[in-house]
């Protein structure tokens, strides 16, 4: 079962209010917490199903978080990284999400 | 941007953080049961997110510290009860009882089986613990972040490792015994290792895993490298048992085996222990166990092994056991950079073998009667007797050199193949060679004779490269000879004979030899030798140009004397050839016959016209002459022979031209009319009148000695099967080993020359320094002269005194004694 | 976008020409700043050649504020320095439109003033990374004075007495609190403003910090033309452009306020004999600085930005010694750059200018990079990462230049007016780790902001940090002469910060290729 989890290329991130985001596994693993969650050797249910329900995050925030994951993934080997724009009203919530997700 | 900035930033919705739904206890209960599930390997039913969120909430509630403690407690209970029970259950009494390894044979199998079972249970417990704690740490990551940064406590992983250490490794095996699980583990592993050392096969990976565990646990919570349980708990015991094992092992092998076997076993043990560190224990121990082996197995025994009677280094050398020597070298170099025992043994053997060679050379010599005072008549007899033995002595000198060369090549091979061309060893071996070579006082002479022999005969029919290597070998020995000046003297002497008597086989070889010596000893050394060659060439030119001169101006009527002349620079050639005065008396020059005298004068005239201001002195003793002699037989027949004689003999024989047939000349008459020195006259008369095959003169009375009153007649009955007869001078031409007197003489001359060299060096140094302390002066003198010979300290002191007397130097201070140069 | 106009009237100027809030001791010139018009259209300059036409192009531009303030401060600086600059946030609060209304209230400036006031003991914005528990929570303290306050949680094991002022209620009581020396200082500043005196001597002693609003009016100091009795000779005509000099020597300053770094025309700054432990990197904004005196403080190192001021700015004289500076012979060195890249056998030998014959080489004048210290890495929480853990990190992660989500959020927060508008009580129950970051961000903002010394991005949490050793002895001597051949070198430690793990010195070429002019981005 862990082998099936490993072959899954995409994982589903679910917000507390029910929004679902399907992202590549490697992208989701930008977050330390999600990386541990999906670690195939640990055998937790998320690792088996490839579906992470993130109870604490709202859809709006999770969307931005996913955007960040992609931004990070896309630029991680670039020398000149563009700035990522964050709406000020989301700053604090994103900071909190970053804290929670360890990213 | 500006538009957005106007929006107000709201704090995150409180709802997400409000914890009124759950209390700490409720959430902890869920967490605790989940953690237990993890331990029982039921994680797949758990949601990571849920656990993580619970831990997160607890932390946000400010109960981070409580959570941490609770988890520790839970782990402590799990390990202390569940796991510890499993472990102690696997320890059987056989593991506890047999403290001394391998002492009771029948128990060892039982103990081994029990040990393996115990180790595998322990390994499983450890691996489970590691895995579970990895998962639990992940789940509690948020707590860990706060705990490690804000509270400055070790992470939960580290904390539970410490719990494992205390609750499992340090727990008592039985409630009634003091020993803990760790001790049993240690004893069991050591027992297994002893089994393996005794030749059994053991389960290495199992031990390896248990060692991993000890490497993963630390004494302290800060986890310093040095506080690994492996290092504090296991390694010292391992080193200790290994030490005592190898102490007895070394003794055992030494008692039952020979040196070669010892080396083999030791090498195997070293490889074995290394492998053990790589595959069974930890690489951390590698250097330590290596030290134990080096100390207990090698350092302690190597000297004994090297000197082992019958099988030690001596016999290895004698039997050319290159492989075994190599392993002795290998072992010795592990413990001692200088390889002292081996070096000493090799050196000792070299000197021993060298002394044998010396002894056999000396015995070959001393077997013959030792020469005493030689003088006048007595000598002629002895000279004759010694003709043959002398040659034998020369042979033994050459054999001496050959033997040494053979010895050298033997040790060169050992050095190359066994000692990895070790530089230190090379130096030591060179010293030993030098030691025994120089212990033979005649080494310089022998070596020079070796060259002489080879350049005269030895290289006939040899290829260029053979000649080259032959000369190279000789040069190698020259390197060892300390008194290079003595060698130079002999070589010069021998060379002069070769040149003047045209005995040299190949001038190319001679020149090659000179250039080799130049490379080996230096320019200064060969300067004089080279000038001897130069004199020879110049003389050839001179002779031919003189002949031309005669052709042009000469009186055609005059009986022609064909003159071939060598003009030698007096300072470059050996002294005894050049000296006019012997034993302090001034020797008047020899009176030549008229014909010769006119030729001589004509040449002198010719020469001085070319080089004015030079003085020619004629060395009749070194020359030869071809004369045509007519023998009137009693039956009236006339027999002609061409005689090749020495210049002196020619002078003597020409005297008889004026003596009527049947009349005689006495020795004294001859002496008065020729002024040939007594010594030479006697020898020449001996060869002309005594030697059986070349009796051109008759002597009355007929005896071997020549007395002043003897009469000499021309022997018209001289018979010889050959047209040309060569009449050698007794004991004149050939180069051979010197007799005692000659030797003494050489030594004396040597000392004089050395004295001059020392004085020259002292003056040179003082001229430059102006003022110098005694000890410093000594040092400089010694270092300047060491290339040629090792000066005698007393001699240097005497020379300095003498220089002071002659006012080259002065004493300028007493304390410390200091000299000044007087310009 | 606003920022594409190269020389917009800065908001602060618009704001500050209003009648002072401290009207009884007006810090303003008696008259309003003059209105100027100009024919040159900065908007049409090269760097925004493609910029969309503004409504006011073609018209004469009007500038409010001082006339010299609109000239290019340093004509020597090439215009390309302004070009392709990163949009960096200075982190300095300029007051937004909304806040203008409120700023009429005397209480408006208080939070910032208090910031500095209470953070006196924590004057070292670089240090909190090492000692995170010492980050001061003071600004939030008055808002949540209860026992459950954020302050209490953050204090850590070491609890030190707060300066007395902290206990004071906010601005309402300030005038009562205003100490004598502050009053005196304000009087001196006002006097200078009145008389057009461009040499401001505040070396009066005892000031523990620079009170809010003290320095801001100096931005607008105008010189008065000398009025003389005729006959008027030529030498009467002197430049009316102020040569602003500020002397803060002999006080007890623990830290500097961002207000100081707004004095962009400051030419001479003396901070001699204070208690400063660190000079904020925002010093870089004082691009006109020619002469700085930092001697007799508690500095262990300098911000790297001084080197920038030397090389790209006008700085000619930098007096640093004596200070308890780090010494190169005691410091750990990772790389040597002078005289070559090999580790020297003897320090004595390497710290010597290479021999030269005349003519004097460039090297004898310019700063020389001697060595670089080891690089310290920090995690996304701002904690140093131990060497062992770093070795286990993947190389792509180590090379990445991507800011963390935390960093992105903090930068955005600092750009916004969040810290001004959010009452402390709103965030008091945020997670502890987050609060720490927020406090840290505010520190950075108060000290004038930061920008990465490698990629020049504005940032909050440094991810890398290292010391570079440069010999600036010619500048320490005030450029009186070149170094003599073979002269002994005395390198100064300069601290550099990087905004990501990818921002580390490139050991092959430690050349400064591009240095954006931060001051111009305002």
TrEMBL record, chain A:
SMART domains per the UniProt record, alphabetical: Skp1
SUPFAM superfamilies: POZ domain
Any one cellular-component term (Gene Ontology): nucleus
InterPro entries given in the database record: ELC1, SKP1-like, SKP1/BTB/POZ_sf, Skp1_comp_POZ
PANTHER family (UniProt xref): ELONGIN-C
Record's subunit section: Component of the SCF (SKP1-CUL1-F-box protein) E3 ubiquitin ligase complexes.
Protein name: E3 ubiquitin ligase complex SCF subunit sconC
Source organism: Aspergillus cristatus
Lineage, top ranks: Eukaryota, Fungi, Dikarya, Ascomycota, Pezizomycotina
UniProtKB/TrEMBL annotation, chain B:
Any one Gene Ontology molecular-function term assigned to this protein's record: ubiquitin protein ligase binding
Keyword Glycosyltransferase: no
Amino acid composition bias (Basic and acidic residues), ranges on this chain: 369-389
Extent of the signal sequence: none
Entry keyword set: Isopeptide bond, Ubl conjugation
Domain of life: Eukaryota
GO CC annotations on file: cullin-RING ubiquitin ligase complex
Region: Disordered, residue numbers: 360-393
Chain ranges of the Cullin family profile domain: 442-689
Cross-referenced InterPro entries: Cullin (IPR045093), Cullin-like_AB (IPR059120), Cullin_CS (IPR016157), Cullin_homology (IPR016158), Cullin_homology_sf (IPR036317), Cullin_N (IPR001373), Cullin_neddylation_domain (IPR019559), Cullin_repeat-like_dom_sf (IPR016159)
Family matches, as SMART domains: CULLIN, Cullin_Nedd8
Ubl conjugation is among the record's keywords: yes
Family listed: Belongs to the cullin family.
PANTHER family to which the protein is assigned, alphabetical: CULLIN (PTHR11932)
Protein name stated in the entry: Cullin family profile domain-containing protein
Species this protein is from: Aspergillus cristatus
Automatic annotation (TrEMBL), chain C:
GO CC term (a single one): cytoplasm
Domain of life: Eukaryota
Keyword Repeat appears in the UniProt entry: yes
Feature: compositional bias, Pro residues: 1-10
PROSITE patterns membership: LRR
Region of interest (Disordered), residue spans: 1-68
UniProt xrefs under InterPro entries: Leu-rich_rpt, Leu-rich_rpt_typical-subtyp, LRR_dom_sf, LRR_domain-containing
Keywords: Leucine-rich repeat, Repeat
UniProt protein name: Uncharacterized protein
Annotated organism of origin: Aspergillus cristatus (Chinese Fuzhuan brick tea-fermentation fungus)
